Amino acid sequence: MQKSSVLRIGQPKTVLNKRQKEFNQLSDKIEQLDILIPELRNAYYLLVERVQKEYNPIVMEFQSFRVELVRHLDRMYEKDLYRKAYLTKLAYLISEISLDLIVNYKFEELLPIFNKYSEIDFETALKELKLSDSQLIDSKLLAEENEITEEEPFHELDIEEQERIKAELRAAKAKAQQNGARQILQQQKTTKSVRKVYMDLVKAFHPDLETDEAEKQRKTEIMQRVTQTYQENNLRELLKLQIEFERIDQDHLENLGKEQLTYYNLVLKQQVEELEKEKADIQQQISYLCGLKPEHANSLTTVVVRFNTNINEVKAEIKEIKNTLKRWKEPSLLKTFLKTYQIPNMTIFDDEDDF
Predict the structure, then answer these.
(1) H or E stretch including 224?
(2) Average pLDDT, stretch 110-119?
(3) Nearest alpha carbon to residue 113 among 131, 130, 90
(4) Given this model, what pLDDT does residue 152 score?
(5) In 3D, which of 281, 269, 326, 260 has the Cα closest to residue 69?
(6) Contact 348, 342 (CB under 8 A)
(7) Handedness of CA 184, 190, 194, 197 (dihedral sign)
(8) Considering only CA atoms, which of 89, 117, 85, 106 is closest in space to residue 328?
(9) Is 152 exposed, middle or buried (0-12, 13-18, 19+ CB in 10 A)?
(10) Which among 26, 21, 104, 18 is positioned nearest to 60, based on CA atoms?
(11) CA distance 117 to 19
(12) Please, what's the largest Cα pairwise distance for the chain?
């Protein structure tokens, strides 16, 4: 839908009351989000395309070199060039890398190599991976639960304390019901405010009673815009349409009554909340694709720069693993690496220099 001009009350130097300022602030925020959200959506679509065409192929190229690395380490192990401490490290590296390649990149052809070097079978390893992921989630939940203190059971409290709690619950329930009724009333009034603007436009531009065909076509197109905007509960755009079609002028906005402006602001707040949620959803999708923190995904340029960085990082990893493969074809260089490498959570004493 074509967007009309910026909606504001008063001129830049006009002295405005609190509600008028809030109206302008909300309108400005919606204007910004109306520009930003399509930009972010385009960034997301661009990422989806580039992930398929550019990122995934080079990631799989890198993983194919890891497969080659696993096979090379397998051959080196079979040559029996190193003593037990080094072979233990080799076996660990082979099983860990091959497990990742099987589970995350579907290189099932490495399963025999994994089973050859792993101390546990593949199904058990898979269960342990899932358990590890589950424990990570549980630890986060536990940290949140630890913030909640346990209270003494109600039935163990004395009668006076029980009565006090019951009175508080009754008061809280009554307040919640009162607030709920007030919210329903406000919602009815805000909906009525939007409908009032909508009906003004319907009365002015409904094409059914129009006899001139050209004018009927023009009004039909106008009503399509008006109806779509009303269905979106978009008060701001309805007001802009009123101005565009000269149903109201700026003086009308500046002279809105206190109550009417209050409910207009409520509707605009709802629109801001909905747009903010839409923006957050798109930012989260972008974050998933390129690793950028959602709150930092705030422009097409930022997203593209981060994605290009990701591409360059994978290319650098490919260059590095190719160099590693080349170096490790020399047994002494592989041994040098194994000498300093430590299996996580395991201490291996290694003071000998021979193979």
Answers:
(1) helix 213-231
(2) 94
(3) 90
(4) 53
(5) 326
(6) yes
(7) positive
(8) 89
(9) exposed
(10) 104
(11) 72
(12) 102
Tokens (6 digits) for 136:
């990570």
Q: Which of 251, 234, 239 is nearest to 201 (CA)?
A: 239
What ranges do the domains of the chain cover? 18-148+156-340
Q: Could you please report the per-residue DSSP string of 2-16?
A: ---S---SS-TT---
What is the residue whose two structure tokens read 């650098």? 316
Within 10 angstroms of residue 307's Cβ, the number of other Cβ atoms is: 22
Q: In the structure encoding, which two tokens stand for residue 217, read together?
A: 């076509």
**Angle (CA) 261 264 266, round 5°:** 115
Q: What is the 3-state secondary structure (H, E, C) of 275-300?
A: HHHHHHHHHHHHHHHHCCCHHHCCCH
Q: How far is CA 187 from CA 181, 192, 257, 266, in A?
A: 10, 8, 18, 9
Q: How far apart are CA 36 and CA 42, in angstroms?
A: 10
Give the pLDDT score at 221.
Answer: 85
CA 128, CA 122: separation in Å to the nearest integer?
A: 10
CA distance 127 to 201: 63
CA–CA separation, 45 and 304 (whole Å): 12
Work out whether the CA dihedral 332, 336, 337, 341 comes out positive or negative. positive
Model pLDDT for residues 278-326, shown as the tens digit of each residue: 999 999 999 999 999 999 999 999 999 999 999 999 999 999 999 999 9
Question: Over the stretch 126-155, which tens digit does the pLDDT of each residue have?
Answer: 888 877 766 655 555 455 445 444 455 555
Using alpha carbons only, how large is the chain's radius of gyration in Å?
33
Instruction: Report the 10 Å Cβ neighbour count for 243.
Output: 16
User: In terms of C-beta density within 10 A (0-12 exposed, 13-18 middle, 19 or more buried), how is residue 314 classed?
Assistant: middle
Q: What is the mean pLDDT of residues 91-110?
A: 94
The torsion defined by the Cα of 276, 277, 279 and 281, in degrees rounded to 10, comes to 160
Q: And the tokens for 251?
A: 């003086």
